[in-house]
Amino acid sequence: MTTETTTEATEKTGTRADAAGEQRPPAEARYADELAKLAAWDAERGAELPPGWRLSPRAVRAFVVGDEQLGVSRKFYGDDPLVDRAVVALMGRQGLMLVGEPGTAKSMLSELLSAAVSGTSTLTVQGTAATTEDHVRYSWNYALLVSEGPTQRSLVPSPVMTGMRAGSLVRFEEITRCAPEIQDTLVSILSEKQLMVPELGPDAREAARPGFNVIATANLKDRGVHEMSAALKRRFSFETVAPVRDRDFEIELVERQLAAELGAPGDRPAVPRDVLEVLVTVFQELRSGTTRDGAPVKRPETVMSTAEAVNVAVAASLEARYLGDGRVTAAEVARQVAGVALKGDEEDARRLRHYVDNVVRERARKDKGWKAFFDAAEVLWR
Amino acid sequence: MTTDTQGPRARAAIAGTNATEGRRIGPDGAGLDGAELDRAELDRADVTGTDATADAAAPERGLRAVWELAPDRLRRAAAAVEELRERGVHLAPVRHHSPACAVAVRRAIEELRPATVLIEGPEEYTRLLPELLHEDTRPPVALLSLPEGHGSPGGASFYPLASFSPEWVALRTASETGAVIRFCDRPSAERDRPTTAPATAVAPGDGGIPAPTAERHDAPDPAPAVGPDGGPAIGPETPAEHDPFARTLMSERYLAHSRSVAALARRLGCRDHDELWDHLFETRSPAGLADWRTTFDDVFAWAALSRLDYEDEVLAADGSLDREARMSARAAEAAGPVLVVTGAFHTLAIAEALAGLPEGEPVRGRWPEGGYGPQATGDAWLIRYDHERLDGLRGYGAGMPSPGFYERLHAAGGPGIATQVLVDVARAAGERGHQVSTPQVAAAAVAASRLADLRMRPHPGRTDVLDAITSCFVTDDGGIGPERPLGLAIAEVFGGREVGRVPSGAAVPPLVRDARERVRAVGLDIDATVPRTARLDARRTPAHRARRQVLALLDLLDCGFGRQVTGPDHVAGRGLGLIGEEWEYCWTPVVEARLVELSHLGATVEAAAVTVLRQAEEGLREAGAQAAADGAATLVARAAVVGLTAHLPRLVDLLARTLDTDRDLGSVVAGARRLLGLWRSRVELGLVAAPDGPDDTTWDERPASALPGGTTRPDEPGGRSPADELLALVAQALATAAYLVADVGRVGPDDEEAAVASVLELRALARDANRAWGGDDAARPPTGHGPGVRNVAAGQEPASAVARELARLRDDEGAAPAVRGALLAVGAVDGDVPDDVLVARVRGALRPGADPALAVRFLGGVLRAAPDLLLHTPELFDAVDGAIRDLTPDAFLAVLPDLRRGFTWLRPTETHRLAERVAERTGSRAADVDVRVRIDENDLAAGLAVERELAAVLARDGLAHWSGGHS
């Protein structure tokens, strides 16, 4: 495992350098070499590709869950059957809906699948309350529209339309943040696989080429999300992405993400294993509402996702580097948890105080790491 | 993943890409090469001594590849299997409840037509062959063994057989071909004393057995031992001792925990060893499976992987080696050709022992000098079983999960059952309100087969179908959810609903037969597989009374047959006024198994029930006097409810004696309450001579004096009905209670609440008891504060002693204040205490200068007993109001929590009326007083502190009147 991690870290550092200038290149750029390997593997086997796909289903799966023999790294952890189901769902007529709490790597999974299946993960609609039908269908270049009238040249296709033309996967992030009527624009696109453009004439339409499909991600329980219509629901296969439950595994995930965000441990203050343990334990216990010994804990409303844990670790590391003595301790973690994870919610702060009083206080007596966390929290969270 | 690019990787293609069957080609052109086994993986699995090179061309048989590169030991064993075949000894390694193995076993027997078929299973089961082979026997059934002496409950072990179990198929096929059938495993009686085998089997100085082995056997507490893959299990097993199904003879702990199997599963992208098995075997075509030599070789290889993960010491300690010794010895002595059907985990050892290989020494060394002799005998029974119990998913570890799925697989004769299963799940989900459309089913069918392609299986397996359901039937973020309609539908279809049948003449332990007859005799349905509901009116209908009695009897035996849903619970003393009652019951295999297990308790249901009662009595005696009266009364109630009236005198005697020693008023009162409840239900419980014709009188319409024997003088001996006995006991209990009343006054503050509760309970009991004795208000409804204790003719009724003692306690200044307060209040309610006395006493208790804590405890007692007095008696209100106003702020704060609690006894409407009264007094509005304030203690404390400070500031500035009148 150790060697694997190191190679991957180097690999990532390498690609980062290649794509200089971009903060975060898309998956198809970051993992270009792996995608090439898998394509070669498909060719070598003579594997049958579904229409419009760049890789065979098996290669797509290998891209996501890794294959040691082929030198493909594992990128998604925790639920391999889910990946199988997702790959198969994308071959069907229905779209793929990834649902789950924030920070369960839904978006990452959708990015990886798009990169592997279509070679691009950038055909993305980001759902917000301000998303309009134009973002899903098409809009116009108004200068051209005024001068030329409605023509192909003056038409500005949406990512969805581009995906239909190219036969690519299209990602629709956070679809439930859009108003239901905007969401429903997808209904006809998904069922008829075509888009009428009446402005160009009564018969003008864009037909989806093979390979087109939609991966949507949604959060059904968060605040400020909309309902999804039954008609739309019927056009998607639902997959629930669950939070990571295994502590060691989550620690590993956080470590990897840290390396991805801040570079290899050499270039930055290292976050010691025991500090990560404190961090991940805090997150897991607050997320599940019970301590590892089974004692109940008050669950904050804020989602204590792995992604948030990574944010805390990153912030703690930055704090140690620029404001501290370069060593990351549980004290930095405690300070950052309050700010990064709790988002200033007073009720949640009370729940966290309760957690500190009931759980951390006891642990602080026996464990240095927890003591540092407790001391910092004591001062800050009062 | 192609072979050519793998370099030194081994192709242990135990998935069986083989010549006979042809390559199974996946859609991507790959065969089942997914089953390639990493060499490193094998190394990790403690396989040593391998020197083979990896790249094996497509092997003749799947298994061969393993042997080529695997350790010498496996290769030699493979050769041994081959050699044994030539000698006419055919080993058939199986996984229990595997349809794939069943197909292979059938083919093998049909082709070989062996003279003898040996089946892993305790030898004494051979005696049950006629019943097993009876044409009326329908799986699922189970063979049941009880531990020696049938002593400890939960010690039963089961040997389940489904229609798709290889063992079952072997039995039936062998019987068709006329083979001699024998079970060949260690008798189940021996599994409880594993020490004997090595002692007798091991020759002195035999180097074959590691020394620690014998020691471990002698250890008093051997590690929890479960028979590896399917072997009849040895020794104590998995937890949940109360659950008879925690012990199954076909446990798979070893396979589930094998590191090699786990590594292989990971390698092939299977989530666990069950999926791995499906991947390797269950998705094969019937034609492929019918090549039984290949199939068995592959199963052998699969199990050998996990076998090598365990040291001989472990296998010796759990008895595996002993059992393998017997099985191999039986195979050696059987008339050939012989087919030996065993769990695949044992095949390696058996082959090595039979072939005389050095590795076989630990097993062969256990062969006794003179052989094992004639087949062991012992008690065992054939009982019906059901899929639910068979389902490994339910945590019993009984082999493969989802018997419903594999039943279909077996019945269909081939692996293409995905669509059928999907349709059934959709229908079952629809019945539960989760509608699944036809397009969804079609999409799921497509998804299942694509998943199978993706996972390189020729047909969708169990997990593929489940994943397809997850993908296509779920339309929200809740997943399948075991409690949701879809989850239940899956449980129904995958779990199966089959219930087996045993021939009517099958030997059943007498207790089971008796119970069955009793249940049938009273007209309860014994054949239903889902719970039925019986609505009974035991008071009016004698037939219902009989039914209730049988249900209660079996309930006493705790055999899971029925459970009361509604209606009076005479044991707990709840719902006694109810006329009808409902029971839910179902004669499941568990019931039968539990009865078999209890069969050592007695030959009839009654006898067993008596034993259970006696055991409970013993328990009570051992527990000593603490709160024993209620326990004894509970026993009396249980005996009465199940109609064991013949045993009542003894129990009554026990209770009478416990009453003498029990020092706990609460227990005595509760016991008496139970007895009185029984007495009230005496007619429906059959505790009196049966009345003529339909009996529709209720207890309070039947004067006690009309009962046979009369009850006005309950202490008169001789000729009394059980009901009279009960009433006599109530009298005795009341006397005891009266004696104990004085103690209640001496409790500390912490026990005050319980003391008040038992005093109030005692007062209510005394009132009800008076009615039983024909007090002059016998016809009054039992609710409301009617005159009760007061009306008892002085000295005549047992309850009068109680009334006297209660009154004495009430007037005892030294008694606990809450108890006094409560007694004063009920006295006032009952009319024993005039209002002016009440008010004077309350004033006295709350007078200025009295300890506020004591005062509030007193007030708490009053409010607990009769909160409405505060509303009905204006003077009392004034007294309380004044006393509270006079408290200093600090004292008020100190007693506030108790005060608040005291007022919670008021009903909401009463609270509101009180609030109106307070509002009137303070000049505010009731709505402002009677509000629910959502603050916690800290907020309250902070608020009060602020208020006090403010008041102090105002007072300093000469504005004290601003702060609103207090103090």
UniProtKB/TrEMBL annotation, chain A:
What Pfam families does UniProt report for this protein, alphabetically? AAA_5
Q: Which segments constitute the ATPase dynein-related AAA domain?
A: 96-236
- Compositional bias (Basic and acidic residues) spans? 9-27
What segment(s) does the record annotate as region Disordered? Answer: 1-27
Q: Which top-rank group of organisms is this from?
A: Bacteria
Q: PANTHER family annotated for this entry? A: MAGNESIUM-CHELATASE SUBUNIT CHLD, MOXR FAMILY PROTEIN
This chain's protein is named: AAA family ATPase
Q: Which taxonomic lineage is given here? A: Bacteria, Bacillati, Actinomycetota, Actinomycetes, Micrococcales
UniProtKB/TrEMBL annotation, chain B:
Q: Name one Pfam family in it.
A: DUF5682
InterPro entries xref list = DUF5682
Q: Where is this region: Disordered?
A: 1-34, 185-230, 690-722
Please note every region of biased composition (Low complexity): 195-204
Q: Where is the composition biased (Basic and acidic residues)?
A: 185-194
In terms of superkingdom, the source organism counts as Bacteria
Q: What is the protein's given name?
A: Uncharacterized protein
Q: Which organism is it from?
A: Myceligenerans pegani
